Amino acid sequence: MFAKFRRRAETPQPADSASDHPPQPSPAPGFSGKAPDPDDTGPLLSVRGLERTFEVGGKPLRVLKGIDLDLYPRQLVMLRGRSGSGKTTLLNLMGGLDTPTRGEVWFRGQPLHAWDDDRRTAVRRKEIGFIFQSYALLPLLSAYENVELSLRIAGVPRSEWKSRATACLEMVGLGKRMHHRPYELSGGEQQRVAIAKAIAHRPRLILADEPTAEVDSQMAAQIIAMFREIVARENITICMTTHDPTILEVADHVYEMADGVLAAV
Ligand SMILES: Nc1ncnc2c1ncn2[C@@H]1O[C@H](COP(=O)(O)OP(=O)(O)O)[C@@H](O)[C@H]1O
Ligand SMILES: [Mg+2]
Q1: pLDDT tens, the chain, 265 aa long
Q2: When you count CB atoms within 10 A of the terminal residue's CB, does the N or C end of the chain come out lower?
């Protein structure tokens, strides 16, 4: 169904800490207020000086202490780091689910950090897909209905729902399981429904938080092969968190989160 996964080498190198060289002047906005080029040559998403502090028991907990990151079109990027290092916090900020304490998140030239929740939600529904460790499917809906729901929410015309939802479920190898509900599917199958759901509305970016943590190693390899195929075929960038060293090998770029900052590995 899917070619064995392979590493892509031809994607551009991010301009920040991913390079062995000293930091280059950023092509992205930095704090200059100039948005990055929203077309295919510039970064799809740029994070600059990102900080997030939570209030815990009346005391500030500084989780992100100044993150810089560029994601380019058609990349598979992985974040690793010990539990509690702030990976989920960063993904939430990149997807506009949370507001930074300080710093900037630019998605296709749009300043998510400066926008209210309604505006961020509108962008997220159309242009970003999420995949979670625990699948996050609606239990009373079939696999097909779960995928169709993301097309409805994104405002895709009704006439396209059936063909697109079916094509996405076939793409993840579930053409014959479309009318099953989540509880009638294995963990790996449920995660594949979640992948179909995340790509259905043709987002440009997918954020996947430990998507292989609850499946066996064979299914994890299949999921990563699907991610490579999606990146190649659907003009999507996928940024995911993982602990699995075998999976990390397949990434275009790997970053390590430690002490509230991010370093290229
Ligand atoms: N909403 C929140 N309120 C308070 N503390 C939080 C909140 N979200 C995350 N944290 C804390 O921030 C730290 C990083 O969490 P998280 O981003 O989930 O890490 P990871 O995904 O790398 O395991 C943890 O110490 C966690 O307890
Ligand atoms: Mg997490």
Answers
A1: 444 444 544 444 444 433 333 333 343 333 334 444 455 678 999 999 999 999 999 999 999 999 999 999 999 999 999 999 999 999 999 999 999 999 999 999 999 999 999 999 999 999 999 999 888 999 999 999 999 999 999 999 999 999 999 999 999 999 999 999 999 999 999 999 999 999 999 999 999 999 999 999 999 999 999 999 999 998 999 999 998 888 888 999 999 999 999 999 9
A2: N
Q: Where are the beta strands (DSSP E) in 81-175?
A: 102-107, 110-111, 128-132
**CA atoms of 209 and 241, how far apart (whole Å):** 5
Residue 121 CA to ligand 1 center (angstroms) comes to 22
Mutation to probe ligand 1, out of 85, 89, 207 (largest number of atoms < 8 A from CB): 89
Ligand 1 atom index nearest CA of 56? 4
CB of residue 87 inside a 6 A radius of ligand 1: yes
**At how many degrees (to 10) do helices 187-199 and 143-153 cross?**
20
**Atom 13 in ligand 1: residue holding the nearest Cα:** 84
Dihedral angle computed from the Cα positions of residues 206, 212, 218 and 221, in that order, rounded to the nearest 10 degrees:
30
Q: Return the CA Rg of the chain.
A: 18
Ligand 2 centre distance from Cα of residue 130 (Å): 13
Kindly state if the Cβ of 182 falls inside 6 Å of ligand 1.
no
Position in ligand 1 atom list of the atom nearest CA 90: 17
For each of the domains in the chain, give its residue range(s) and CATH number, in order of start.
Answer: 45-264 (3.40.50.300)
